[in-house]
Amino acid sequence: MTLFSDPSDPRSPLPEWVQEAYQILYDAADGPQSDFTYEEAYALLDESDTFSAEHSDSEYAVERLLNRGYLYEANGTLRVTETTLN
What we know:
Helices cover 42% and strands 12% of the residues. It is built from three helices and three strands; from the N terminus they run αβααββ. By secondary structure, the protein is an alpha+beta fold. The protein has a three-stranded antiparallel beta sheet with strand order 1-3-2.
C-alpha cells in the first residue's frame, strides 16, 4: 500500500503530479517542525519540472494536499504531515 492509496478512503486517489508535489515538499522539509510560507512552497514546486511556470498548478497541488491532510497550516505557515512513505 502506498501513502496515497487507501482502500478505505472513498475519495479518488490524488493525481500522480500532486503526489510528486508532496514528495518535493517532504524532501525539502527538515523534519516535522520545518515549515514553509505558502510562497516558499509554491516556489519549490514551480522550480520542479513537474509543474508549469504558472503558479496555478502549485497552488492547486498545495490546496489538494491541505484538504487531504498531507500538509497542515500552523500560524500561517505550511508543515508537512509526518508520515511513513512506502
